């Protein structure tokens, strides 16, 4: 690994002005990789601070690593900052494995030193890339996981990702750079070590260039991921409305975009989705399930063509009663309401001709439409009550809504919260079921009673 190759990599990939003295915090463990990186940065007169976290896991060996890095920096005038962390104790307190806990502590330490304007350099190599990809493959990762270690993330750069471990060790020998050997790296109890000691040598016997091929595959998958994430973001924006997402454009999307759009939407609502949760989200959109429980006392609901994340709230009753003016000559606002856990809605009387002319404008907001002149007495918007029945158009007999919802396997929560519109003769419309035969609009309908989600100014007519 030559100076020229590393310097070119830094300038090309990370656009660092090497003459400008930009502050870099280099994570230095004492191993060959990080010592080679530190030496390169120092030799090219880059403003670098060496940061070493002593994990206190290997006793005298850990202290020896710390001393090696300290002496190397002292001899060359490199700023050196060390922190000791009892990873064994901290990992137990947090309920994390020692490896994951150590990673958290290291990056927190590096970020603290770098501040808002600094750059963190870590010494991951092409060999680490192959091992990471194999490790994730064995654990069941998808294409995003197989994209491996990224060349940069935020203010973190990985300048050695173009070099194998053999390249790095050759550089150390040529430049006479001391480095430490971590005895735990050969412990077969660790899965990554078994990959390094058994799987990688076997693959190299098949093709000595396997590391380079893995690097190209990781880069290709990362580019595909970035493109698909961008397209999924555009899909998500196109489906967004007040209160959630329109289900129809999501159903029409390619599965590769749909799963990513769902993941982005859930992340916006504080939910980190795994592949199983995303699969269930797609089932919800297809109508195979009607509700999906999420972490954090949340749930994903498909409700009147709108997909939304809801927060479980204490059960609250709802009831509204509206006086309907007799035969208004033009559009008239009857009133407004707000269902629990939902956006407000408005009740309008609209001439049928105007409704037909303009219904495309508000079709996504329409909850129900009924023949205005068939409503007897006042209109109630309420929860379902015992004994509620409704007769659909084309049917000769009414049916108990309780039985209808039960046969449809509607979840208990949705049955409880189902919205019912009723006049003095009984239900005229039931959510998840439809309007009654006596109140359904037809060719002779002069006026319509419509309930819309409130997405316009309060007194704007829908027509």
SSE blueprint and pairings:
Elements: H1 3-14, E1 24-27, H2 32-43, E2 48-54, H3 60-76, E3 80-84, H4 87-94, H5 98-114, E4 119-121, H6 126-139, H7 143-146, E5 152-153, E6 156-157, H8 165-175, H9 191-206, H10 210-239, E7 240-241, E8 244-246, H11 247-252, H12 255-268, H13 275-286, E9 291-294, E10 298-303, E11 306-311, E12 319-322, E13 332-338, E14 344-351, H14 352-362, E15 366-371, E16 379-383, E17 389-390, E18 399-400, H15 401-407, H16 412-417, E19 419-423, E20 426-430, E21 434-435, E22 447-453
Parallel strand pairs: 1-2, 1-4, 2-3, 4-6
Antiparallel strand pairs: 5-6, 7-8, 8-11, 9-10, 10-11, 12-16, 13-14, 14-22, 15-22, 16-19, 17-18, 19-20, 20-21
Helix pairs in contact: 2-8, 4-5, 6-9, 6-10, 10-12, 12-13
Structure description:
- It is found in: Cytoplasm.
- Belongs to the tRNA(Ile)-lysidine synthase family.
- GO terms for molecular function: ATP binding; tRNA(Ile)-lysidine synthase activity.
- Residues 23-197 form the tRNA(Ile)-lysidine/2-thiocytidine synthase N-terminal domain.
- By secondary structure, this protein is an alpha+beta fold.
- 43% of the residues lie in helices and 21% in strands.
- It has helices at 3-14, 32-43, 60-76, 87-94, 98-114, 126-139, 143-146, 165-175, 191-206, 210-239, 247-252, 255-268, 275-286, 352-362, 401-407, 412-417; strands spanning 24-27, 48-54, 80-84, 119-121, 152-153, 156-157, 240-241, 244-246, 291-294, 298-303, 306-311, 319-322, 332-338, 344-351, 366-371, 379-383, 389-390, 399-400, 419-423, 426-430, 434-435, 447-453.
- Strands 3-2-1-4-6-5 form a six-stranded mixed β-sheet, sandwiched between helices. Strands 7-8-11-10-9 form a five-stranded antiparallel β-sheet.
- The longest helix has 30 residues, at 210-239.
- The chain is elongated.
- The model has no long low-confidence stretch (mean pLDDT 86).
């Amino acid at each position: 690994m030559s100076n020229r190759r590393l310097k070119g990599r830094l300038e090309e990939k990370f656009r660092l002005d090497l003459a400008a003295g930009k502050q870099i915090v280099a994570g230095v463990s004492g191993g060959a990789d990080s010592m080679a990186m530190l030496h390169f940065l120092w030799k090219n007169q880059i403003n670098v601070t060496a940061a070493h976290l002593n994990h206190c896991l290997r006793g005298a060996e850990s202290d020896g690593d710390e001393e090696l890095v300290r002496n190397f920096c002292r001899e060359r005038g490199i700023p050196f900052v060390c922190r000791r962390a009892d990873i064994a104790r901290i990992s137990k307190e947090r309920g994390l494995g020692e490896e994951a806990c150590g990673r958290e502590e290291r990056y927190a330490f590096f970020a603290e030193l770098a501040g808002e304007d600094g750059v963190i350099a870590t010494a991951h190599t092409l060999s680490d890339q192959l091992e990471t990809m194999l490790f994730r493959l064995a654990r069941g990762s998808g294409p995003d996981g197989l994209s491996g270690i990224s060349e940069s993330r935020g203010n973190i750069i990985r300048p050695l990702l173009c070099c194998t471990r053999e390249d790095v060790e050759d550089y150390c020998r040529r430049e006479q750079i001391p480095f430490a050997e971590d005895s735990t790296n050969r412990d077969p109890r660790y899965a990554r070590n078994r990959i390094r000691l058994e799987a990688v040598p076997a693959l190299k016997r098949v093709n000595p260039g396997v590391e380079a091929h893995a690097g190209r595959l990781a880069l290709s998958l990362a580019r595909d991921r970035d493109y698909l994430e961008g397209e999924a973001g555009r899909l998500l924006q196109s489906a967004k409305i007040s209160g959630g997402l329109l289900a129809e454009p999501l159903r029409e999307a390619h599965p590769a975009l749909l799963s990513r759009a769902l993941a982005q939407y859930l992340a916006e609502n504080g939910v980190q989705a795994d592949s199983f949760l995303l699969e269930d989200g797609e089932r919800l959109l297809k109508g195979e399930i009607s509700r999906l429980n999420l972490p954090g006392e949340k749930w994903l609901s498909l409700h009147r063509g709108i997909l939304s994340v809801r927060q479980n709230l204490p059960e609250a009753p709802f009831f509204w009663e509206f006086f309907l003016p007799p035969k208004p000559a033009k559009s008239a606002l009857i009133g407004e309401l707000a269902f629990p856990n939902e956006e407000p809605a408005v009740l309008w009387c609209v001439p049928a001709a105007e409704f037909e002319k303009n219904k495309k404008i508000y079709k996504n907001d329409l909850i129900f439409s009924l023949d205005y002149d068939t409503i007897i007495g006042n209109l109630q918007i309420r929860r379902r009550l015992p004994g509620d029945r409704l007769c659909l158009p084309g049917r000769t007999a009414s049916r108990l809504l309780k039985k209808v919802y039960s046969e449809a396997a509607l979840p208990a929560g949705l049955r409880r919260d189902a919205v019912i519109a009723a006049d003095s003769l009984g239900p005229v419309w039931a959510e998840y079921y439809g309007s009654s035969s006596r109140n359904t609009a037809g060719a002779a309908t002069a006026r319509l009673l419509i309930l819309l989600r409130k997405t316009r100014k309060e007194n704007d007519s829908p027509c």
